[in-house]
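Repro:
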Amino acid sequence: MDTLDWTAKWADYTPEKIAITSYDANKSYTYSDLHIYANRLINKFIELNLEEGDRIAILAEHSLEYIVLFVACQRMGLVIVPLNYRLSVNEISKLILDCTPRLFIENENHYDKAEQLPLQNIKKISFKDLEYFFHNSENTSEKAFKIKEDNPLFIFYTSGTTGTPKGVIYTNKMMFWNSLNTSMQLGITFRDSTINTLPPYHTSGWHIFVTPLLHKGAHIGMLEKFDAEKILCLLELNKTTLFMALPTMLLMMQKTAIFKEVDLKKLRYIISGGEKVPSELVSYWKNEKNIHIRPGYGLTEAGPSITSLHHKMAELKPNSIGKPNFYLDLKIVNKNGEIVKTNEVGELCIKGNIVTPGYWNNSVKTSSKIKKGWLFTGDFAYYDEEGFLYMKGRKNDMYISGGENIYPQEIEVQLELIKGIKKAVVLSVKDEKWGECGMAFVTTESDTLSVVQIREYLKENLVAFKHPKHLFILDEIPLTSLGKVSRKKLYHYFNTIKSQQ
């Protein structure tokens, strides 16, 4: 039995234990089911002449079938390319042309979009076909495969909020060491359970809890779309112990009518990240539900379990992303590559088995980001005197105005301290006088807070050169499909306003 084939091992140890439950389809697969169905799918893939290294592009939401597909692909050495089904036909077409899949799999609700994609000479099947293979295949023979740790398992295309999407290669080795990091930080065992609402085209939809819990023989609930009230009910009903949610999702949950009524005593931790986790959010869940939110940091190119803030420090170290996890090295360097001092800002770099070998079809980008085994993340950070990490924002976000380095996240923190402001986002734009300047977008709790009042507060609390030149009050901050801030839409909004002036 292959040491990386966790499903086969648990199918042998605890064959009747429920591994995956779909709350949309009201169906469950045991570990034995996962093992058997994956082998049946492998036989079908062999009939389709698929070979190690071939890519399979998938246009579908997360589901039971997707998990079986994952097990089968890992055993055969096939590469899963989860496509973002929320993208336009043109955007998805570019990804398909880049990864050149041998097989395309679609869910029924994406047929119309799939028909417009460049799939000539590419084999196609549906998720309905997959389910048929699982239950009706006559070929039930098991093949012996050696899972190679350096084999690519996924290609994750980055969201593209700041540029053209790049295909990040994710290997079996990365998955194994990420699972260890996650399990050790949170004490995960076979008794744990989670509900995954994150999409399959993002690394967090697989490697925050799905693959670590498969490694531990635990239970994974699946919900295709995030529904705040439904999630709260399911967390209570299933006595879920671990949950991952972006700050935006948690805010939506705490605003539901049932938030204070649901019993979430079994929920040991909520992991949050993907964007800044406000200290007020951490305190609110602790005070109202006695639930610990553990902020952390990760990215598609590594982990994604890179740092974690212990729950006992969450209120003592507000806005920190914690300390590095076990099996990796971190350093923070200045522009000359020298390690910075305490409280000095520099670029965060990561080294270890959780780092990607590179970008698909992009050796230039790979060599610019990975140097002597170190991944240069493009994120600015610093250590405090006790070794806790704090983010200062993306390297690409930092801008120079009148010769001064300005970090948007610092301004966002100050804006969100203003009573009445719910959310603040700061971006940079070109400026004739200063080279670059800041523009801030905020949402407020009422109509009484004005731009003039916000600027008056900044005068008292932020040095003048850091003040955003442009300031907009919005009804809501536009988000991407994953719940992150959509910079593209904010820039579009700004350019529209400027063109009308």
